[in-house]
Amino acid sequence: MKKIIAVLLCMATVCTCVACSSTKETTRKTRKTKKTKDTTDVTETDDTDVPTDSESDPSETETDPTEPEKQDMVITHDLSAVEINKTKSVMMYSAVDTTKNEEPPYRLSRVEVGYDILTSSDSATKIGSILDEYTYHVGEARTAAYQKKLDEFNELVGAGSELFDYWFFESCEVIRSDSQILSMKIGTYGYSTQEDIEPKTIYESYDAMSGAPITLDDVVLDKGAFALYVEEYFRSVGADKYDTIANIHDQINDGSLSFGMTYDGIWINEIKVPVAGHGDIFNMTYFGSTPKNYTLHMGWKNELLWDFDGDGSLDELSLSTEKDSNGYSVETLKISYMGKEYSYNASDFEEMNDMEELDGYYGSHVMCLDGKYYLLISMRQEENSATYTFDINGAEPKFIEVFFSTPENTLDPEHFQLSLRTDIIGTIFMNYDFALAEDGHIKQLSSIGKIHSGPLYSIMPLPGKEFNPVTWELGAETEIPSSATVEILGYDNKSGILFVRVHPKYTSTDTMDIALETDKQSQIAGQDRDSAFIGINYAG
After folding, report:
1. What pLDDT score was predicted for residue 69?
2. 3-state class of 273 per DSSP?
3. How far from 360 is each of 248, 332, 496, 522, CA to CA, in Å?
4. Which DSSP helix (H) or strand (E) runs through 70?
5. How far apart are CA 438 and CA 408, in angstroms?
6. Rounded to two decimals, what is the model's pTM?
7. Whole-number Å distance between alpha carbons of 302 and 319
8. For 90-137, how does the pLDDT look when each residue is reduced to its tens digit (9 = 90+)?
9. pLDDT for position 384
10. 472-493 confidence digits (pLDDT tens)
11. Mean pLDDT of 74-82
12. For residues 271 and 175, is the Cβ–Cβ distance under 8 A?
């Protein structure tokens, strides 16, 4: 009888141990399957490491179901794009420095200040009023600064004294503009023989509907984790100078960090930091939503996480290159997309094996047009660049075409700029308007290239016609007087018309816009270009 009781007790003990072990294994598998895409797998421990005669470790228990789950970026295309018109206002005056005794004079001394004018007619958001206020304050400040420098300059001209050089620009690039967010990158840069001018870049972001500024506290949920993540990312792209990292940490802590916002990341110090997979750091309600047509910047690392196939999960796209045996030129281009890697020999593409590397600064892009995605890969070699376009909507990336420039102002796939060479006034590059076509080819929208050149100085009166700087339509006959400061605004590579602006000596107003005929080679208004203007070869 005692033996029977002992056997029964042993069997009960074994059953209890098995049940306990089974419960622990179920807990581990449940935790693993509940992880999100951006968390690390819970490592399963060997059963021999789990004591079977003790209660479950509290660290093994499930997360409190009332605790909010970690967010991730959800891609939708339910926003409305807000169109923004941008023109540049430039004030300038120049003169020959008679103290330098150059015969003939080739360069001009100048005072020049410029800034961007941004407007929007959209009435459904506050974007128009935000831009009006920005442009007003910038215009007031830059005009006052120009007038002060101009008065100093003219005083020296009148006295026959040595002249100084001064030019200063404030540019504004819109990096997001839709019914949710307006975000702008504002840069200042210049040159002066009187003082050092340090280039600066700041960002401003606004709620499009309320007009209120978007702050770091709005976007970042955990500043400590954010600071560590930004530092790690900056190190990964080689932007890890001690002062840069230390300044960013300080600015994060005091809330003064300047940042821009795009659909899949934030911009800091001209570097895009992606947000996908970091829902514990970022408020994802600001990211993932786009208009119907939009552009994604691949950033310094040439990587993107985005839902390309519309299945609700994020897909990975990345670019890399392998160089030749000399380590100088690109030999192989690699595109990793939707879990597969595709390799392309550089020799199969026009001038790709002359390129040195992927362009990290201007970057490669993905443009979405009517639900289709096109990959624009930018490469560079010294001062030259090329962009290779691929259709990424099929089974594998399909090459479309190459153009030898880098896209700029790419927010809207149906309106961006490419810089193309023009030789009528010496070698100079002008921005031409382009758009992405439905088949992924790039089409030119206008034959007029635009620029705001350095100053020219007219040697003689030059006949031309008035023109409208908005429509570029020609008007009545007129002429440029001799000894005038002239700025080049554009060139029509079909008709050969050169569009210029004549600036007055004492004020920033009363400019004249005049169109000059050329022979598309070296003649301007019937004169050899070097006989018509001083400074023509330095206008770019």
Report:
1. 53
2. strand
3. 21, 17, 35, 36
4. none
5. 20
6. 0.83
7. 6
8. 999 999 898 887 776 667 899 999 999 999 999 999 999 999 999 999
9. 87
10. 999 999 999 999 999 999 999 9
11. 96
12. no
What is residue 242's predicted lDDT score, i.e. its pLDDT? 60
**Residues 239, 268 contacting (CB under 8 angstroms):** no
Separation of alpha carbons 247 and 475, rounded Å: 54
What amino acid occupies position 84?
A: I
Measured between alpha carbons, how far is 322 from 357 in angstroms, rounded to an integer? Answer: 9
Determine the Cα–Cα distance for residues 229 and 235; give it in Å rounded to an integer.
10
**Amino acid identity of 421?**
R
Q: Euclidean distance between the first and final Cα of the chain, in Å?
A: 108
- Closest to 427 in 3D by CA, of 537, 334, 531: 537
Largest CA distance in the chain: 129
DSSP 291-352: -SSEEEE-TTTTEEEE-SSSSSS-EEEEEEEEE-TTSSSEEEEEEEETTEEEEEEGGGSTTG
- Closest by CA to 290, choosing from 378, 214, 177, 122, is 177
Q: Give percent of the chain with pLDDT exceeding 70.
A: 85
Instruction: Say if CB 399 and CB 349 are below 8 A apart.
Output: yes
Per-residue DSSP letter, 46:
P
Residue type (1 letter), 378: S
Q: Which positions ≥6 away from 24 have C-beta within 8 Å?
A: 50, 56, 60
Q: Which 3 state secondary structure label does DSSP give 266?
A: strand
List b or e across 264-295, with b for residues whose CB sees 16 or more CB atoms inside 10 angstroms.
Answer: bbbbbbebbbbbbbbbbbbebebbbbbbebbb
Q: How far apart are the C-alpha atoms of 278 and 264, rounded to whole Å?
A: 11
pLDDT band at 45; cut points 50, 70, 90:
very low
Burial, 123: exposed, middle or buried (Cβ in 10 Å; 0-12, 13-18, 19+)?
exposed
User: What angle (nearest 5°) sits at the alpha carbon of residue 318, between those of residues 305 and 408?
Assistant: 85
Indicate the SS3 state at residue 242: helix
* Domains of the chain with bracketed CATH: 2-60 (no CATH), 70-293 (3.30.565.40), 294-413 (no CATH), 456-538 (2.30.30)
In whole numbers, what is the pLDDT of the chain averaged over residues?
87
Quickly tell me which residue has 């005692």 as its tokens: 2
Task: Count how many residues are written for the chain.
Answer: 540
CA distances from 399 to 157, 345, 367, 392, 449 (A): 58, 12, 15, 9, 27
